[in-house]
């Protein structure tokens, strides 16, 4: 894997070597601390030539600037200081990471005309650097010809100079816990399916015990005893078996009901007997993006020692094809006792979640449940890849999720639910069927899930367009985005911690 930068914080001091990054606000010019890094005033001359005004994420670079011994001097536009919220600092960190190149000794001067960046701002900038620096290259064996040089093998050492390095370090400890959760989710989504099947995924979840998470793994024997015919029906065509990982973080008061997150973990989806087209099927290694997000979230909460009781449950299966695979027209009995006519074996994620949601609700009686799933292509038709679909039976929960999405820019758009859609999954042969016709596919999938949550406040996030193959941006260049970890951490942080 690519080497992760190391980050430290220090007080302002004009660097004498390496690469130096300074910030310039929109039309504000350079601060005194930034000017101290440029005694030859090279940036002052370069700005008008490059038509640089400090516009957000603009970049001007000077190599070997005169009157100093540093290698590179880079100015990053910070835009208007009034617009520098948490996400803007993340993006500025990402912009810096994109401009690092092969620098190994880096100083970032975090000072601006018209603003006094806080320790939290410095931590967000550092978090953005880590998010943008991520790359999944663990299986690449051919090296660039320059990588034989010793300096190319070293991770960058980045020192962020700030007015209050102690506060920045404290805030970064918290922020880094969340970033590590995001990167874990990205790793899981990016892994090929021959490496990460249900058993291997369950083992990765089990590793969270090192952080104090209580983890139980249910195998097929236990699931059969619980009556999880819906989930097991999806898994029966694969020799790799099925697992449910139950993760508990108990950071709140002992008697407080937990909040719960449930993830779809289809480690590879052929579509089963209702097989997908060959073109693009390789992307179905990412059909466990919901389970990855829940696992990453549990890592984040435990690593930052969140003061809340949280349950994470992931249903792990492989939807494969062999002589034992589920057939269109099969009828299965879910843990709830409700029967399901499986008309399309490629509508399998909802079958996995049906049993996982019922189990979660029945065992833990949580304050609410939020499930995440790369569930339907229909949500991408409706929303593209910049918003995830939000379906909920509870307005308060929906509003809190939307607010958390706006704060983190992992944005959600609420979609409708209603009895008119519910009728479309009534079946002549069972209590329900798993598809409902050509139109409103994402809504129908949500209506299906709603039949397994009783009256518990619940939300379903359809992240098919945002968890994998989503558009690159300042803080993510990876195919697997880790979508949902920052969003749900913010939900818990803002509303449910003591």
UniProtKB/TrEMBL annotation:
It is found in: Cytoplasm. One of its GO terms (molecular function) is metalloaminopeptidase activity. It comes from the Bacteria. Mn(2+) 2 binds at residues 264, 269, 287, 348. PROSITE patterns: CYTOSOL_AP. Mn(2+) 1 binds at residues 269, 346, 348. Gene3D superfamilies: Leucine Aminopeptidase, subunit E, domain 1, Zn peptidases. One of its GO terms (cellular component) is cytoplasm. Its EC number is 3.4.11.1, 3.4.11.10. Keywords: Aminopeptidase, Cytoplasm, Hydrolase, Manganese, Metal-binding, Protease. InterPro entries: Leucine_aapep/pepB, Macro_dom-like, Peptidase_M17_C, Peptidase_M17_leu_NH2_pept, Peptidase_M17_N. GO terms for biological process: proteolysis. It catalyses: Release of an N-terminal amino acid, Xaa-|-Yaa-, in which Xaa is preferably Leu, but may be other amino acids including Pro although not Arg or Lys, and Yaa may be Pro. Amino acid amides and methyl esters are also readily hydrolyzed, but rates on arylamides are exceedingly low; Release of an N-terminal amino acid, preferentially leucine, but not glutamic or aspartic acids. CDD domains: Peptidase_M17 (cd00433). Its cofactor is Mn(2+). Its main location: cytoplasm. Binds 2 manganese ions per subunit. The active site is at residues 276, 350. Residues 344-351 form the Cytosol aminopeptidase domain. Belongs to the peptidase M17 family. HAMAP family: Cytosol_peptidase_M17. Presumably involved in the processing and regular turnover of intracellular proteins. Catalyzes the removal of unsubstituted N-terminal amino acids from various peptides. This is Probable cytosol aminopeptidase. The lineage of its organism: Bacteria, Pseudomonadati, Pseudomonadota, Alphaproteobacteria, Hyphomicrobiales.
């Amino acid at each position: 894997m690519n080497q992760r930068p190391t980050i430290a914080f220090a007080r302002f001091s004009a660097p004498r070597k390496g690469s130096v990054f300074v910030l310039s606000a929109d039309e504000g010019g350079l601060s005194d601390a930034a000017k101290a890094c440029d005694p030859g005033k090279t940036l002052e001359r370069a700005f008008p030539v490059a038509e640089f005004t400090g516009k957000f994420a603009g970049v001007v670079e000077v190599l070997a600037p005169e009157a100093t011994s540093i290698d590179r001097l880079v100015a990053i536009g910070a835009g208007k200081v009034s617009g520098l919220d948490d996400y803007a600092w993340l993006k500025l960190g990402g912009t810096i990471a994109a401009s690092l190149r092969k620098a190994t000794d880096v100083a970032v001067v975090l000072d601006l005309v018209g603003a006094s960046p806080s320790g939290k701002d410095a931590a967000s900038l550092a978090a953005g650097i880590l998010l943008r620096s991520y790359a999944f290259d663990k299986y690449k064996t051919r090296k660039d010809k320059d990588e034989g040089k010793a300096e190319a093998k070293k991770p960058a050492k980045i020192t962020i100079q700030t007015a209050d390095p102690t506060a920045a370090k404290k805030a970064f400890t918290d922020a880094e816990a969340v970033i590590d959760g995001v990167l874990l989710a990205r790793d899981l989504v990016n892994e090929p399916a021959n490496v990460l099947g249900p058993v291997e995924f369950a083992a990765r979840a089990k590793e969270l015990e090192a952080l104090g998470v209580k983890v139980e793994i249910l195998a097929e024997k236990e699931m059969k005893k619980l009556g999880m015919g819906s989930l097991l029906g999806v898994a029966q065509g694969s020799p790799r078996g099925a697992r449910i990982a139950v993760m508990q973080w108990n950071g709140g008061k002992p008697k407080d009901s937990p909040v719960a997150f449930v993830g779809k973990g289809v480690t590879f989806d052929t579509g089963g007997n209702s097989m997908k087209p060959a073109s693009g099927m390789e992307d179905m290694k990412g059909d466990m993006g919901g389970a990855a997000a829940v696992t990453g979230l549990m890592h984040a909460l435990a690593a930052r020692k969140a003061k809340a009781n949280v349950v994470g449950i992931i249903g792990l299966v492989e939807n494969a094809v062999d002589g034992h695979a589920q057939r269109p027209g099969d009828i299965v009995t879910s843990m709830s006792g409700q029967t399901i006519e499986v008309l399309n074996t490629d509508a399998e994620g909802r079958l996995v979640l049906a049993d996982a949601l019922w189990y979660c609700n029945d065992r833990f009686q949580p304050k609410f449940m939020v499930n995440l799933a790369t569930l339907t292509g229909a949500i991408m038709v409706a929303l593209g890849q910049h918003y995830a679909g939000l379906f909920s039976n509870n307005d308060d929960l929906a509003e809190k999720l939307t607010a958390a999405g706006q704060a983190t820019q992992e944005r959600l758009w609420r979609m409708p639910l209603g009895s008119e859609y519910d009728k479309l999954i009534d079946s002549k042969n069972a209590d329900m069927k798993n598809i409902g016709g050509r139109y409103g596919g994402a809504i129908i999938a949500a209506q299906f899930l709603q039949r397994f949550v009783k009256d518990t406040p619940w939300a379903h996030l359809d992240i098919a367009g945002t968890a994998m193959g989503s558009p690159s941006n300042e803080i993510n260049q990876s195919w697997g985005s880790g979508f949902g970890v920052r969003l749900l951490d913010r939900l818990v942080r803002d509303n449910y911690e003591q």
